[in-house]
Known about the structure:
The complex is a heterodimer of chains A (556) and B (81). Chain A is an alpha/beta fold and 556 residues long. Chain A has 17 helices and 28 strands. Among the domains of chain A are: 35-179, Rossmann fold, CATH 3.40.50; 343-445, Luciferase, Domain 3 (Luciferase, domain 3, Roll); 450-555, ANL, C-terminal domain (GMP Synthetase, Chain A, domain 3, 2-Layer Sandwich). The relative contact order of chain A is 0.09. Chain B has a single domain, classed as Non-ribosomal Peptide Synthetase Peptidyl Carrier Protein, Chain A, CATH 1.10.1200. The longest helix of chain B is centred in the first third of the chain and has 16 residues, at 2-17. The model of chain B has no long low-confidence stretch (mean pLDDT 90). The chains are: A alpha/beta (556), B mainly alpha (81).
Amino acid sequence: MTTLPQLLQNAYQTVPDKTSIILQFASQEDKTITYRDLIHGANRYAQTYAKQGIKKGEVVILILQHGEDLVYSFWGAILHGAIPSIMPFLTEKLAPEKYRADLSSLISITKPTTIVTYPEFEKEIRDALVEGNSVKNIILTNQIVSVSDINFVSLQGMNSSEEDIVVLQHSSGTTGLQKGVALSHRAILNQLNAYSKTINLDKQKDVIVSWLPLYHDMGFIACFIMPVILQIPLVLMSPFDWVRAPYKLLQSVSQYQGTLSWLPNFAFNFCAQKIRERNLENVNLSTWRAIINCSEPVHVESHNLFFEKFSSYGLNYSAMQTCYAMAENVFAVTQSPLDKTPVIDEIDRETFMTQRLALKGKPDSAILKMTSSGKPLPNVKIKVVDESFNEVDERVVGEIAVQSDCMLTEYFNRPDATESAIKNDWYLTGDYGYLADGELYVSGRKKDLIIVGGKNVYPQDLESLAGEVAGVRKGRCVAFGMYDQESGTEEVVIIAESESGESDKELIADAIRKHVTKNSAVAVRHVKVVDETWILKTSSGKTARSANKEKFLKEL
Amino acid sequence: MTTDITTPIAKFIAEKILKQPNKEIKHDEALISSGLIDSFSLMDLALFVEDTFGVKIEDTELNADTFDSLNQLAGLIQSRK
């Protein structure tokens, strides 16, 4: 039996001087953390949690920015046997009232006993707490006890069993924060075991470089938990710094001989379009053996843009790979084999659109180029099913269902959500796709979800915000995503009905854009204010998002 | 003249970033803190300023503390010319 704390202890005893994490900052020197530093820092937090009387299995919410405290408070919770969950930090773009409301909704479901934050942020947190809530301790980063000795036997996390929940992962927004994915030690270690074999992870040679946030599965698992647990050095920068200086990813790969990175599809376009040559002097990307495109629909065109821009810096075309992943399976479901390039399937557009069949395209008809997400991991089974949950043939589009030994334990405190997501031991992903020659192609989405720059956004959250704007008819808003080839990701579209005249509609559109952006931190690209009865509803009165999207596209 | 600076920037923001060419941007309107310019577009603005006015804005300066409105951005550009 193995658990995460046992593996930390093992690293501490066998490779204390090995680099675990190199933290990068916009205007400071890089900070190297060895396994000794990591465990000592984590132990100080574990002792603080113990002193505060936090019990094993209690949830600790971490509201911290990129930096040492976030790293130590997280691993400290693991050593203590508490369940950490990382909540995004308030940014200047999100309205503080909305942030407090999101935090309250997280607390109401997850029932954490403890929140860790900075002294200067304490008031923000206290203001979000309502009478009778579960939070007993707010631990501030300046209250952490100093200890030098570490006594593993006294750490409660050492007695954890494989079945225990070790972390919770939330996605963003009101809806996402109410669904915490609870993962056990066993699930995480089964995933790491299978995934590390699939990508031939080598602790002597590999170095992971990442700018991904830790509150999303790709950053959290592939670029935080996996490297720390499997002893792969990790170079980690903040997403806020990267978005302002994307070239730093490439400079860091060159400086630290990085071998692996994970990026959402849009980041390939973003780097290719916005990085300037003058920031790439002496940059050498030849060590980069895999750049894995994951967490939003994958497009080979984005790989091609990236390659064109950076091939002269030693980038190998074969480095660009794909993966299909979800928090409910810890992380990866499929991975393209790294010894070749992802398969491109050219299918007949007409039969795909009208009959949901992905037949090989004929030379004289219009084709669609589909990029494979790869093959299932050795511990994962995939099937594609129809509406009645019957498995369909190869090249028939249906919902993707997943079964593995690394599934979530549950949605934390949400038996209703757990029950509706898992059917006969199969997890229904809510994604559409098809299988061909053992490769998975993800072709669309059944669930109503928008993915913007790799971030999951629930349309119902945006619709309810748009509905708060004066002049908008109550309950008459619809939000959906539309793929934009230039940026390589989806753009948010909001349509709202109003009884106002044409000149006021423009003002209402502006007000919607502002209000939604301010309260969701999601950029809204298109807002259309329309006359009443424009929006299509289903017979049961629900908003039919896909039908409205089709109508919008026809009118463009 | 400040308008020599603000006019082309306003046009760039409306056309290229917001994709609403007819949108008028007020000189004191909050651009960053309001979320009007999302973080993915901040770099575009910095590159445009550099190409058009020959003035460099560091990546650590791309936040509302350094400039938030057209007027403030124009002031920053003039002080560096």
